[in-house]
Design goal:
Blueprint lengths: L2 H16 L8 E4 L14 E4 L3 H13 L3 H11 L8 H16 L6 E5 L5 E13 L3 E2 L2 E3 L9 E8 L8 H4 L6 E4 L19 H7 L23 H11 L4 E5 L16 H4 L9 E4 L1 H12 L5 E11 L5 E8 L4 E11 L9 H21 L5 E8 L7 H10 L1 E2 L4 E2 L6 E6 L7 E5 L7 H8 L9 E3 L8 H5 L5 E6 L4 H5 L12 H20 L23
Parallel strand pairs: 7-8, 8-9, 9-10, 13-14, 13-17, 17-20, 18-19
Antiparallel strand pairs: 1-2, 3-12, 4-5, 4-11, 6-10, 7-11, 12-14, 15-16, 18-20
Helix pairs in contact: 2-10, 2-15, 3-4, 3-10, 10-15
Length: 547
């Protein structure tokens, strides 16, 4: 069988084993105002119900005829990684739009935002220790850094440049060197599993509302701040001194051959980047070995060939948008989405091809079942999320309003809800209510038929660091699902191990079914979902004085 047939056979066999009948219990429905108000108040709840016939059709399509893993395969093995504005992301976006059109999803398009900055791709990397004993390095370049001029060699040197005052110590001593400017990292013994699912107690604990005590007397303070702009000045110093490349440890996740590669500063992808040398992130164990050798006065010589390509055909980026038209309430919108971009050392599978594939599959399910949608359903696959929610923030400002002034646009009043997926590929176990108690009885009703798939929990707490936060900040109901962690935070997230194998097919199929059902019920209920009070304006901090 070809790849497509094998993947369809796998997902079909998995689905047949645990496809379950739907259950439903009546709960409650809340009413909300039609227009945003400076201080909207949730209204009293009214009975709500789940459409069991629709859920049965959604489950059958999602669990018996799934295409979600085939979509994931294209986004990862074929087109991954998908760094914002990179050739890989653009190829993946072209494919995704074609796949949505193949499913007869209408109104598929790109919506430009920006300017963002240059595209970038690593096209070749060899990193080899030549002496004292030859061995290859597990390494990846930091995004938007330059490459080497072909194959270069250099001796390793360990520095400890922490402030501007340290530059003088190393001036004139680093030409032709490979610099290790960070200390060796501690790698503790691994005594817990890398992957886990939520226990019953974990889910109970999630339901407790957090209380932030603020920074009163005795609150823990952070470490000493780095002088403003120091990293840029350090990079410029290394470039002026003729450094061949810098190495740093890829610590922060599991280590053990896993390298964490992210967090390139915004100046790196700008149209006018600062001076810098090639920068490689290497496995922590190998980095420590090099530090120990140099500290032990054993000469270390390395050979590097890093070929990185910058793409400047457009400094603008784009989000991918697709819509299923509504009927009697077509002017109102229910949104779903996930971020489409990734970091570059893996193929961006768990973060976040999994979320993108599941939400695309939800659109396919809704189209294939032929369920009547009263409101328009809009899918948005965001870019620039990894650089700070840039794509979703730009979309919100273009369509809904400015959170800085809280000046709203007419579209703001017509959005019922946004559902986001960006917690890896683990099975959905519930939903974060984002501080919106008024939706609790509604979601309880919608969740009940999925109890047999493990969805049981509502947590009042708010979560951030992904795209639903951009819509929540402007007062639109926006929610992130609770998902089993698996090895997302321990081994996959932003690492070279974030590949197809990190994603569990059964979980993906369940997640697509749940997302499709939540979107469907939001699209057909009589009223928009209730909103929290409109947030206060968020004025930007004044720039620091230069005097």
């Amino acid at each position: 069988m070809d790849g497509f047939t094998r993947r369809r056979a796998l997902t079909g066999a998995l689905a047949a084993g645990w496809f379950a009948a739907a259950l439903a219990l009546p709960s409650a429905q809340s009413r909300t105002q039609a227009k945003p108000d400076p201080a909207p108040v949730a209204q009293a709840a009214r009975p709500d119900s789940a459409d069991l016939d629709a859920i049965a059709r959604i489950k059958e399509e999602a669990l018996q005829r799934s295409q979600v893993m085939d979509t994931l395969w294209y986004l990862t093995d074929v087109h991954g990684p998908r760094l914002t504005n990179s050739p890989g992301l653009k190829a993946a976006a072209t494919w995704a739009q074609g796949r949505l059109r193949d499913w007869s999803v209408p109104n598929v398009r790109e919506e430009t935002w920006g300017p963002f900055g240059r595209g970038w791709a690593n096209e070749k990397l060899t990193a080899q220790v030549l002496a004292p004993r030859p061995f290859p390095l597990i390494a990846a370049p930091r995004a938007w850094t330059p490459g080497t001029d072909g194959t270069v060699t250099g001796e390793a040197v360990v520095t400890a440049i922490r402030t501007d005052a340290d530059f003088a110590t190393w001036t004139g001593k680093l030409s032709g060197k490979v610099v290790l400017n960070q200390p060796a990292v501690d790698i503790p013994l691994l005594t817990t599993p890398l992957a886990r699912r939520f226990t019953d107690q974990d889910l109970v604990d999630l339901q407790v509302q957090p209380v932030n005590p603020g920074r009163g007397r005795g609150a823990r303070a952070g470490g000493p701040p780095t002088a403003a702009g120091f990293t840029e000045r350090l990079n410029q110093f290394f470039a002026r001194e003729g450094v061949v490349a810098t190495l740093e440890p890829g610590t922060g996740r599991n280590n053990r051959g896993t390298i964490l590669v992210n967090n390139a500063p915004a100046t790196y992808w700008s149209a006018n980047p600062p001076m810098m040398t090639p920068q490689l992130v290497v496995s922590s164990e190998q980095y420590n070995r090099l530090v120990r050798l140099v500290d032990g006065k054993v000469p270390v010589r390395l050979e590097l060939n890093v070929q990185n390509r910058f793409v400047g055909d457009s400094l603008d980026a784009f989000n991918i948008v697709a819509e299923l038209p509504g009927t009697d309430k077509a002017a109102e919108v229910v949104m779903l989405g996930a971020h489409f971009d990734s970091w570059h050392s893996g193929t961006g599978a768990a973060d976040n091809a999994a979320g993108s594939a599941a939400m695309m599959e939800a659109m396919r399910i809704l189209k294939a079942t032929g369920l009547r949608l009263r409101r328009t359903v809009r899918l948005v696959l965001w870019t620039g999320e990894e650089q700070g929610l840039l794509g979703s923030q730009a979309y919100v400002k273009e369509h809904f309003g400015d959170p800085v002034t809280m000046t709203l646009k007419p579209e703001h009043a017509r959005v019922s809800v946004y559902f986001n997926m960006d917690n890896g590929s683990g099975a959905i176990r519930g939903v974060y209510l984002q501080g919106n108690e008024a939706v609790r009885p509604i979601f309880a009703t919608w969740m009940e038929p999925f109890r047999s798939l493990g969805m049981t929990t509502m947590a009042i707490r708010s979560v951030a660091s992904t795209d639903h936060r951009s819509l929540d900040a402007i007062g639109i109901p926006a929610f992130q699902f609770i998902q089993d962690p698996l090895d997302y935070g321990s081994n996959a997230h932003h690492t070279n191990n974030d590949v197809y194998e990190r994603v569990q097919p059964e979980d993906m199929m369940k997640n697509a079914a749940i997302a499709a059902s939540f979107v469907y019920h939001a699209a057909v209920r009589d009223e928009l979902l209730p909103r929290k009070p409109l947030p206060r304006p968020q004025p930007q901090p004044r720039p620091a004085s230069t005097q």
